[in-house]
Specification:
single chain, two-stranded antiparallel ribbon, two-stranded antiparallel sheet, 12 helices, globular, disordered N terminus, heme, calcium, Haem_peroxidase_sf, Peroxidase
């Protein structure tokens, strides 16, 4: 049985992270810590309780909520645009068809609308839920500012140009992350999100080739051959599109530094994982995080703050949706 690590204390991170956040992201000055202290004091508790309940029933929930945040923030900023339903919305794009965690967000929103109607944005719920999901999976407990407002635009055509592909090189990812105000260090740190979650076979089938007998063979020599054999068993050539594989084969439901240890063992699930070890610009950070979980957790706190502050809408921008799947109009 996997041993759950003790969550990294928020008190260790809080002072450093707050100072870092204000210096690095002045454009998010309208966000504030404890934004709902007066208007809806139990807001963060209600989100946390919803995430805890859902995670206790389904251990895949934390990974789904964390992925949902990435897909929200990288497209239109952290404004819950990924939650909107309808023809041609972000959820229509094939890259988002496998997203999950929507029901958890909707559950939290329903509770908040009962106690604090029209007050807490869906964008804040997505960010808080991902923050709590990481902690509940054994990761660092951090504080993040709130005050995001919900966006009004959601277009499928905006998804692909703004989401990293699993075949990306370091240069490809660096360019994308830089466009979001994230550094190369942030790229390596936030890639650690792959320590939880799962992927469909199609996300890494480029590392294999089907032979004349209909069997897969390994063509990506950067991948550990034993691990590759396990993947081919889980995802044979004719595997159902619904089949998924855990991102981290060792501690699948724990947020820890095992992802980086996997990279050192050439067991990164995606090409975009493996290249972090092969590139001189990112290799040292991978090694450092593999050897020091505290270092990874401290960096995670800083990079997560930056992630959740990408192109946020505040003040008079956007709205506070009554339902996360539709705009108020």
């Amino acid at each position: 049985m996997e041993k759950r690590p003790v969550p990294y204390s928020a008190t260790v991170l809080f002072t450093t992270v707050v100072v870092f956040f204000i210096a690095a992201f002045p454009s998010s000055a309208n966000l504030s810590f404890n934004f709902y202290a007066a208007s809806c004091p139990p807001a963060e508790f209600m989100v946390r309780n919803t995430v805890r309940s859902a995670s206790s029933v389904d251990p895949t929930v934390p990974g789904k909520l964390l992925r949902l945040l990435f897909h929200d923030c990288f497209v239109e900023g952290c404004d819950a645009s990924v939650l909107l339903q309808g023809n041609g919305t972000e959820r229509d794009d094939p890259a988002n068809k496998s997203l999950g965690g929507f029901s958890v967000i909707d559950s939290a929103k329903r509770v908040l609308e009962i106690f604090c109607p029209g007050t807490v944005s869906c964008a804040d719920i997505v960010a808080l839920a991902a923050r709590d999901a990481v902690e509940m999976a054994g990761g660092p407990a951090i504080q993040i500012p709130t005050g995001r407002r919900d966006g009004m635009v959601s277009a499928a055509s905006n998804v692909r140009p703004n989401i990293a592909d699993t075949i990306f090189s370091v240069d490809d990812m660096k360019k994308l992350f830089s466009s979001k105000g994230l550094s190369l260090d942030d790229l390596v740190t936030l890639s650690g999100a792959h320590t939880i979650g799962a992927a469909h076979c199609s996300a890494f089938n480029d590392r294999f080739q089907e032979n004349s007998n209909g069997n897969l063979t390994l063509i990506d020599t950067s991948l550990n051959s034993t691990y590759a054999g396990e993947l081919m068993k889980q995802c044979p050539a004719k595997a159902s599109p619904s089949v998924t594989v855990n991102n981290d084969p060792e501690t699948s439901f724990m947020f820890d530094n095992q992802y980086y240890r996997n990279l050192l063992a050439h067991k990164g699930l995606f090409q975009s994982d493996s290249v972090l070890l092969d590139d001189n610009r990112t290799q040292k950070q991978v090694v450092d995080f593999a050897n020091d979980q505290v270092d990874f957790f401290e960096s995670w706190g800083q990079s997560f703050l930056k992630l959740t502050s990408i192109d946020v809408k505040t003040g008079d921008e956007g709205e506070i949706r009554k339902s996360c799947s539709t705009t108020n109009e």
